[in-house]
Design brief:
Recoverin, domain 1; 3 domains; two-stranded antiparallel sheet; single chain; mainly alpha
Length: about 230
């Protein structure tokens, strides 16, 4: 049976192709599906299960400007493959598409995502905290990374930007973040990561020496005072 031919003969159904290892399945939605689902069906003129930019354009107002169309398409195209699948469409439509703040935060995410892998590494996240210390920035990143995969998804980024992170996140000690080699001690260089760039080397050295009770050139957790701020 020719699946493409078979699909085209069933107009009440929402058609979609899901390909895995050369196998295809038909994702169908009844004719009473939501307006958004039906809009996807009508736009998917070749019944491929995904929308090209030209097909996606038909879901928007005829007065929409090209830059607006591209912005919305790129927002919907979560995996950046130049196609919007039904799953991506549903996610796109379920978000508050008309929210200026959501649009702004999504655009910021895309701008920060330099390698276009739909996630933010720490290095991509760091420019959002200009003038802050490594420890402060890294601590925020780790708190936002709720699934602990060392990267922020768009969903995690939007939660972070909305200040709605769960309250049950365990606090991350500044000492453990500064301890870059994980040996349980802080060298002067590691201690310095607690301070913003504007602090001078002399200021940091003075603080370090004040805490280094036994003058052995490293700080233990006890000398640090169990994660207290360096000041």
């Amino acid at each position: 049976m020719n699946p493409k031919h078979s699909l085209s003969s069933h107009k009440p159904l929402l058609r979609g192709w899901i390909g895995t290892a050369g196998l295809f399945a038909i994702a169908t939605v009844p004719a009473f599906a939501t307006d958004d689902a039906l809009k996807f069906t009508r736009a998917d003129v070749d019944a491929s299960g995904s929308l090209t930019l030209s097909e996606f354009r038909t879901t928007l107002s005829k007065s929409a400007r090209q830059e607006q169309i591209l912005k919305k398409f790129n927002r919907a195209d979560a995996n950046r493959d130049k196609l919007v699948t039904l799953a991506e469409w549903n996610l796109y439509k379920s978000s508050d598409d008309d929210s200026p703040e959501t649009d702004k935060d999504t655009a910021r995410f895309n701008a920060l995502d330099l390698n276009a892998d739909s996630s933010l590494s720490y290095e991509e996240f760091a420019p959002t905290r200009p003038g802050k210390s490594f420890v402060d920035t890294r601590r925020r990143f780790l708190r936002a990374d709720t699934d602990d995969n060392n990267a922020l998804s768009l969903a995690e980024w939007l939660v972070y930007k909305d200040d709605s992170l769960p309250d049950n996140n365990e606090p991350i000690s500044r000492f453990s973040i500064a301890d870059l080699d994980g040996n349980g001690e802080l060298t002067l260089d590691e201690f310095a990561t607690n301070f913003p760039p504007k602090k001078t080397a002399g200021y940091i050295l003075k603080k370090f020496n004040k805490k280094d009770d036994n003058e052995d050139g490293v700080l233990t957790p006890d000398e640090w005072d169990s994660g207290a701020d360096p000041d």
